[in-house]
Design goal:
There is one protein chain. The strands form five sheets. A four-stranded antiparallel beta sheet has the order 1-2-3-4, with no helix packed on it. The radius of gyration is 16 Å and the shape is globular. Strand 2 and strand 3 (20-25) form a beta hairpin. By secondary structure, the protein is mainly β. It has one domain (39-163): SET domain (Beta-clip-like, Beta Complex), CATH 2.170.270.10. It starts with a strand and ends with a helix. The chain has two helices and 14 strands; from the N terminus they run E-E-E-E-E-E-E-E-E-E-E-E-E-E-H-H. The protein has helices at 145-148, 155-163; strands at 2-6, 11-16, 20-25, 31-35, 44-47, 49-54, 62-65, 68-73, 81-82, 88-91, 96-99, 110-111, 124-125, 136-137.
Length: 167
């Protein structure tokens, strides 16, 4: 259901779905996904499928194999931004978005990008504000095993970590 309305002086509602809302920040024009209900750790927030499959990473993909990257369906999942302290996780084995930490209605849903990409198509400087912020986000291959051990990783990324020598 597509709707567009002003929620407050900073966010504009772009669309509403069963348990989430796509919002746009009115100043930065950045899109984000907010929970419209509360979730507990382990809850399935949404099931997903591969809208497309390709052999290369883009800023919208999730990696499922050495040369396999998928775009997500439903499309609103593309608006989940990065955080170094994520509250959700893309389980590419069960094809479910899983809640990692308590989420209240109105909270932004965020995941740890390197949990689902070995090499990022577009590395970036993180501004998540977490006390554990890694600052440069450029894929799991660039992070130590100790750092990655703090996160839930997709089966593919965990397999890549298990196969390499520790950084």
């Amino acid at each position: 259901m597509q709707t567009k309305s002003i929620i407050n002086n900073k966010l504009e509602l772009m669309s509403h779905h069963a348990s989430v809302q796509v919002m746009r920040h009115k100043t930065t024009h950045q899109n984000l996904l907010l929970a419209s209900i509360s979730f507990s750790p382990g809850d399935v927030i949404s099931k997903f499928t591969a809208a497309t499959t390709q052999s290369f990473a883009t800023y919208l993909t999730v990696q499922t194999g050495v040369d396999t990257h998928i775009t997500l369906w439903p499309e609103f999942l593309q608006y989940i931004n990065h955080s170094c302290e994520p509250n959700v996780f893309f389980d590419t084995h069960t094809m479910e978005l899983i809640c990692l930490k308590p989420v209240k209605a109105g909270d932004e849903l965020c995941f740890f990008y390197p949990s689902a990409e070995w090499e990022m198509a577009q590395p970036f400087v993180c501004n998540c504000g977490s006390r554990h912020c890694l600052q440069l986000i450029n894929g799991a291959s660039h992070l130590s095993n100790d750092t990655l051990g703090r996160y839930r990783l997709t089966d593919f990324i965990q397999g890549q970590v298990n196969q390499r020598r520790p950084l």
